[in-house]
Design a protein that fits this description.
The chain is mainly β. It has one domain (about 1-145). It is built from two helices and ten strands. The chain has helices at about 1-10, 120; strands at about 25-35, 35-45, 50-55, 65-70, 75-80, 85-95, 100-105, 110-115, 130-135, 140-145. The strands form two sheets. An eight-stranded antiparallel barrel has the order 1-2-3-4-5-6-7-8. A hairpin with a 4-residue loop joins strand 5 (about 75-80) and strand 6. It is globular, with a radius of gyration of 14 Å. The protein starts with a helix and ends with a strand.
């Protein structure tokens, strides 16, 4: 969900209020990084810049933070750094100003994410590990054997 929020915030970059000080939006992100579920939030500003923070659902001490930039025409991109030393880069596509999806590569492995979406809505955009399914909702999401 953090990644979803990240993308939503990135979507603000096409607003006619670009450059306005203090205008931003926060949203939830759902991500799978190297087969592990991460959740969190992203905050985007009207100028297209933003930041996010996610944590591993199974190990909340494992956190990742990052920054991104976005525009309606080009989509968005960013980078992240995790508490275990992992780093990564990603790109995303906005579906609306507050919803989207993306993916990238990290030193831990592949990453996919959706933002501004419920868990059910995120499923087509988030690549789950083989033999796993996403259950729960909100902050209570989990990857379980299918």
């Amino acid at each position: 969900m953090m990644l979803s929020a990240l993308v939503a915030c990135i979507g603000l970059g096409s607003s006619p209020f670009v450059g306005a000080v203090g205008l931003s939006a926060t949203g939830k992100v759902i991500a799978v990084v190297a087969g592990e579920l991460f959740v969190g939030e992203a905050k985007g500003h009207l100028n297209g810049s933003g930041h996010f923070s996610i944590h591993a659902q199974a190990n909340p001490a494992l956190t990742c933070v990052g920054q991104f930039t976005s525009s309606a025409e080009a989509g968005g991109s960013g980078q992240m750094h995790c508490s275990d030393g992992a780093t990564g880069t990603f790109r995303f596509q906005r579906l609306t100003i507050f919803r989207g999806f993306g993916g990238g590569k990290t030193s831990r492995g592949e990453m996919s994410f959706a933002y501004g979406k419920t868990a059910a809505e995120a499923l087509p955009y988030v690549k789950l590990p083989e033999g796993k399914k996403l259950t729960g909702s909100g902050a209570m999401l989990a990857l379980v054997n299918s």
